[in-house]
Amino acid sequence: MELGDTICFCFHVTKRKILNYLRIHKPRRASQLSECGGAGTGCGWCVNYLKKNFEAFEAGQTDADADLSMDDHAAGRSTYISEGKGTPRPGT
């Protein structure tokens, strides 16, 4: 994923926002990333990606999802929603 790619579709939170939040606020737990624009509090699809980015940041890395394309991420969320595993916010 690139910096401008969306991680949280419900609240339109990009990877750049997540990484900046990590750098500036230095959360102690991955769950605190929800304070970054509400990331992870909508349908729940992005929670694993938030955790990966948190863990990578803790390890001094920024490429936790370098092998993931934005199209694959979006398609995965569509499948997740269609299987009834999460309820998207209206308009997402």
From TrEMBL:
It comes from the Bacteria. Residues 7-52 form the BFD-like [2Fe-2S]-binding domain. This is BFD-like [2Fe-2S] binding domain protein. Pfam families: Fer2_BFD.
